[in-house]
Amino acid sequence: MYKNLARAAALAAALLSPPFTATVSAQTNVPLKVGFVYVSPVGEAGWSYQHDLGRREMERALGAKVKTTVVEAVAEGADSERVMRDLAAQGHQLIFATSFGYLEPALRVAADFPQVKFEHAGGFKTAANLNTYNARYYEARYLAGWLAGKTSKSGVAGYVAGFPVPEVVQGINAFAIGMREANPTAQVRVLWLNAWFDPAREREAAQTLINQGADVLTNHSGSPAVPLAAQAAFKDKGVRVIAYQSDMRAFAPDAQLAAVTHHWGGYYTQVAQSVIDGRWQPKPVWAGMKDGLVQLSAIDPKLPKELRAQLEARRKAVIAGKLEPFSGRLLDSVGRQRQAGGTMDDAAIAKMNWLGAGVVGTLP
Questions:
Q1: Who's near 209: CB < 8 A, 6+ residues apart?
Q2: Spatial distance between the Cα atoms of 187 and 196, rounded to a whole number of angstroms
Q3: Which helix (H) or strand (E) segment is 149 a member of?
């Protein structure tokens, strides 16, 4: 799982290299107190679980130099602001706010605690003591879509989505692009939860998509509910799943085709070390597969050898920068041209607010 963390660490180190100034932790050998705020329970898989794996990797790497605190299942909004404010008041010098809706609360707390460093996952605003970091999940989503297109018998995939923020929209569109490369008539049916973590509704949405003909599922939500739904329908309907965030084979041992997995340990280690060394600066990070932050992993070994070889060739091309998911002529779901050709730049990807060709659904 962590084979690419060295590259992620190197990237983060390069991005976090301002002039050295001594800090209290460096001078006194007092551990750096690091807080982590999670939107869902850590559990055994999912978004918060992957961030917590990163925290644990950081602890193993830095040992006595850090002391961490975890607060899980924190709702976005007022609750998250209260929690971050408490962590700052308790002397935490670095706080990771790991959900999109934590951005504005984190900015408010950062303004009141200028000596504390904040790192926000997925945000689009920075401050003197608040940085943002994110992964190009859409790169692995493209590969996942291609695999779905190659394996689906119905030509219909079901996508259980949280909120319609650009990160989620990018993933849906990249998945659809990949799927339609493999099968030009394929459809990606989307159902929105307007929640990041709601296992009952996640499973209900998955079942609805199965009833609509989807025989491959994926999701951008926080629990194993979608893989569990696929596993339940595997024997009778042959439903497969491409898991998100974590390897979900423990929940879908027969149904899982692969997993789009997140790997934060190298980045968290380098950020904490930069604070200890006095090198930290707010330089936004948006890294991808070549940096090890996101991967398509846990690929079903029972898939045909030729198919796995084709998938691996595409994976290498993405990592090498030779294959960009958002390139060429792109149409949206109603046939309007969104790009005539070339490769979409980061600014356009970052504000993506339209659904692509082959996507059945609307933006709330």
A1: 158, 159, 160, 189, 191, 217
A2: 24
A3: helix 137-151
- Decide if 342 contacts 163 (C-beta within 8 A): no
Residue 295: strand pairing partners: 261
| Residue in the structure block whose two tokens are 């025989």 | 215
The model's pLDDT over 221-239, given as tens digits with 9 standing for 90+, comes to 999 999 999 999 999 999 9
With beta carbons less than 8 A apart as the criterion, state whether 122 and 100 touch: yes
Q: Compute the distance between CA of residue 325 and CA of residue 141 in angstroms, rounded to an integer.
A: 9
**Beta carbons of 226 and 257 less than 8 angstroms apart:** no
d(CA 270, CA 62) in angstroms, rounded, equals 10
Distance of alpha carbon 338 from the chain centroid: 25
Which whole number is the average pLDDT over 6-23?
37
Torsion of CA 130, 44, 4, 10, to 10 degrees: 20
Look over the chain and give the mean of its residue pLDDT values, rounded to a whole number.
93
Could you give the count of Cα atoms lying within 13 Å of 167 in the half-sphere of its Cβ?
20
The string of DSSP letters for 199-268 reads HHHHHHHHHHHHHTT-SEEEEESSSSHHHHHHHHHHHHH--EEEEEES--TTT-TTTEEEEEEE--HHHH
Nearest to 59 by CA among 98, 95, 92, 33: 33
CB atoms within 10 A of CB 89: 12
pTM of this prediction?
Answer: 0.89
CA distances from 337 to 212, 329, 356 (A): 28, 7, 10
Q: Give residue 194's identity as a one-letter amino acid code.
A: N
Would you call 91 exposed, middle or buried from its count of C-beta atoms within 10 A (0-12, 13-18, 19+)?
Answer: exposed
- Strand ranges inside the chain, DSSP E: 32-37, 66-71, 94-97, 117-121, 130-135, 156-161, 187-192, 216-220, 240-245, 256-262, 285-287, 294-297, 330-331, 337-339, 359-360
Residues 6+ away with beta carbon under 8 Å from 56: 265
Phi, psi of 133 (to 5 degrees): -145, 150
Rounded to whole angstroms, the Cα distance separating 131 from 5 reads: 20
